[in-house]
Amino acid sequence: MKPRISLITIGVDNLERSLRFYRDGLGLNTQGIVGTQFEHGAVAFFDLRPGLKLAIWTRKSIAHDSGLALGSAQIPGQSKIS
């Protein structure tokens, strides 16, 4: 079996603002935010190409689902500004 990627998930702080960026700013096709009926289920999917989707999900929900502590939002390699 050949390994392949079919879904890329990005953790975001603000789901609605991020939806507008990817949909309106980058023009990616989406059905909008789904799963809002579940406490940690709200997510938006974007079609990148056949067989490949981008998902944006809140960092808080990712931390809950993974059981890991919610860390601070920081770009790897960047120093934190206090």
* CATH structural architecture: 2-Layer Sandwich
The CATH C-level name is Alpha Beta
Helical proportion, percent range: 10-25%
- What is the C-alpha radius of gyration, as a whole number of Å? 14 Å
Shape: globular
User: Which strand-content bin applies to the residues?
Assistant: 25-35%
Structural class: alpha+beta
Distance between the termini: 47 Å
Describe this protein's structure.
The protein is α+β, with helices and mostly antiparallel strands and 82 residues long. The chain has one domain (7-66): Signal recognition particle alu RNA binding heterodimer, srp9/1 (2-Layer Sandwich). 23% of the residues lie in helices and 32% in strands. It has helices at 15-25, 59-66, and strands spanning 7-12, 29-34, 43-49, 52-58. The protein has a four-stranded mixed β-sheet with strand order 1-4-3-2. It is globular.
List keywords for this structure.
82 residues; Signal recognition particle alu RNA binding heterodimer, srp9/1; four-stranded mixed sheet; 4 strands
